[in-house]
Amino acid sequence: MKYIITLLILVTIIGIIASCQVKDQNKSAGLEGISILDIPLEKPEMEEKINFFELVAKKATWNIKGESIEAWTYNGTVPGEEIRVIEGEWVEVNLKNELDEPVTIHWHGMVLPNVMDGVAGVTQNAIQPGESFTYQFKALEAGTYWYHSHQNGFEQVDRGLYGAFIVEPKEKSYDKDYVLMLDEWDVGENNRGMMNSMMGDGSTPGEMDSQMMYQTFTVNGKSAPNINPIDINAGEIVRLRIINAGYQKHVLYLNDHSYRIAAIDGKEVEGNSLTTDVFIIAPGERIDLEFTETGTMDWFIDSPNAVEEAKDILIPVNIAGVEEENYASYRDASQLKIMDISQQGKMDSIIDPNQEPDIEYTMDLSAGMGMMQGGMTYTINGETFPDTEPIQVKKGDLVKVRITNNSMLDHPMHLHGHYFQVISKNGLSLENPLVKDLINVEPHEQYEILFIADNPGDWLFHCHDLLHATGGMVTAVKYNGYYSSFELGGEYHNEPE
């Protein structure tokens, strides 16, 4: 009996010591507070609708411009299966991995609980070959979003692991809508010099590195003349949901058709006038536009970008009952006007720009030669991820970030889990603040943004030219009092970028 009591006391002491050691280890690793796994999650009520989707990550043969390539896909197509729900409905997506390496799904632009964000090594472990993972969340806000892998993102998104995620409004302003996902591929011959620029204006393109990698542009996984047409009726109001899934800016022209910008990054735009200008969409960005079909001839949407592969973008617009075609397009790209997206109507402000911030953070972006991807490093404040200094916040903080691009390359900076308000550009306040989750910072530009730290967890803030992200241009927003127990690398081979 004495032996048993002594043994019980010894076990208790060992347990206490072990518990202290775990606490000490967590403390030394910064793991004090609440695990992101313990943040309460809202669950659907019995009467609420749940939309179920099954996605399988697998290899598939895909044809682009007559060449068969091995693509990595969700459900065998590029883009992957379109997910479409109505605002307020629940979504449950089961992802099964049939690839030979780990994958995840990140729900780009969606403000979700941290553990549903799909970032390997930050909000979950990467899903191993042969395994599955279920994402469940409520689609709170109507808008155009997309999904893609956030495990070894540069390679996996580049190979085709992405798709559109559309949350329809309960009341629509349009009769029909179409999704156009833009991308670049390494297919065919490189027929242009790396210094070609947007609209042929002779300026630095900001994309010299990625322009050297790709020779083909696609719309919904196909190049002209194999792009599926937009079929509409005369008099209909049409919304085009344009998503840039690639690593370069894209230029689109509606051939003098008047349209209005309806939404940017999922947020509605009000009070804007009609325009016929061309517009540029940055990597990771979404732009919705609406037009009323009043034409008497079929027409097409094309790209007046000066690069040779822009010819791959030729999207037919077919009007029911009309046989005549309009082959007219731009003749002198230099005469076309590029729309200023910041001057297109008003977005509902989410923050008073005159309010004093609780936290200020300076984000200096730069690029140079190094030992990272392609011999280049892409830095934030002189450091590469995971050594970049995170933005430390507490719940409720108003955070101001000043982003300055000191490089000769574009950096489309994307914040997970939050919307931010753009309050100034190059030192000048914006009359109509933009509300976005991604801002493309061109060479030597500076933006100031505000966001409210109202969604606890660990969130990435990174360049969505994923060549730059994998080269180091990534930091994190970390909430005091919360921690992630997931780790980069390790047995799950977690590689978020």
From TrEMBL:
Gene3D superfamilies: Cupredoxins - blue copper proteins. InterPro entries: Cu-oxidase-like_N, Cu-oxidase_2nd, Cu-oxidase_C, Cu-oxidase_fam, Cu_oxidase_CS, Cu_oxidase_Cu_BS, Cupredoxin. The keyword Metal-binding applies. Pfam families: Cu-oxidase, Cu-oxidase_2, Cu-oxidase_3. Keywords: Copper, Metal-binding, Oxidoreductase. Residues 58-171, 177-292, 373-478 form the Plastocyanin-like domain. PROSITE patterns: MULTICOPPER_OXIDASE1 (PS00079), MULTICOPPER_OXIDASE2 (PS00080), PROKAR_LIPOPROTEIN (PS51257). It comes from the Bacteria. This is Multicopper oxidase family protein. It comes from Chengkuizengella axinellae.
